[in-house]
Specification:
Strand order of the largest sheet: 3-2-4-5-6-1-7-8-9
Oligomer: single chain
Number of helices: 5
Strand content: 15-25%
Helix content: 25-40%
Structural class: alpha+beta
Radius of gyration: 16 Å
Largest sheet: 9 strands, antiparallel
Order of helices and strands: HEHEEHEEEHEEEH
């Protein structure tokens, strides 16, 4: 079990969000995940900030992306997960680390990672914003396990990656 004491530092606000990823996703994965999201009572979908009905086919969301800004939101208890539909090839949403304040919110996030992973049968990662290579948490649906990467190790990786991006 992953405890709040283990991960608390990883949710300290550093100016960035925390991203949740399913890599190597397909349109079928997106369809399955959106099916799960739409069943939640608190599911919201908007286009350019205006409430809208979710299209019958998730492919339409990606088609409209070239001219509009589609967004879906669900609440995980008090934590808001926001999907921006950036790419068909990866499922990505973000959460604000300031909303994860205790074991209660952490458990809601972990349950969400598991729900998504079990739905698509692929690992789900939680990372610092835009650092998909720096896993903080990973849920693997086979064998239904969570892995936590120590904050110190993840922060060393992030620091090195940021330095190399600046050098480029």
């Amino acid at each position: 079990m992953i405890t709040w004491t283990q991960v608390e530092r990883d949710f300290d606000y550093d100016g960035g969000l925390r991203d949740i990823y399913v890599l190597a996703a397909t349109l079928a994965d997106w369809k399955a995940v959106c099916g799960v999201l739409k069943k939640r009572l608190n599911f919201e979908f908007s286009i350019d900030g205006e409430p809208a009905s979710f299209p019958e086919d998730v492919a339409q969301v990606f088609t409209m992306r070239s001219t509009n800004t589609p967004m879906a939101c669900v609440k995980l208890g008090t934590v808001r997960a926001v999907f921006h539909f950036f790419s068909e090839e990866e499922i990505e949403c973000d959460i604000d680390p300031r909303e994860v304040k205790s074991q209660v919110e952490l458990d809601a996030v972990l349950e969400f990672l598991q729900e998504i992973g079990d739905t698509v049968g692929k690992p789900v990662l939680l990372t610092p914003e835009n650092f998909r290579e720096s896993e903080i948490l990973r849920y693997d649906p086979s064998p239904k396990t969570f892995k936590y990467t120590e904050a110190k190790e993840a922060n060393q990786i992030i620091t090195a990656q940021r330095a190399s991006r600046v050098a480029d």
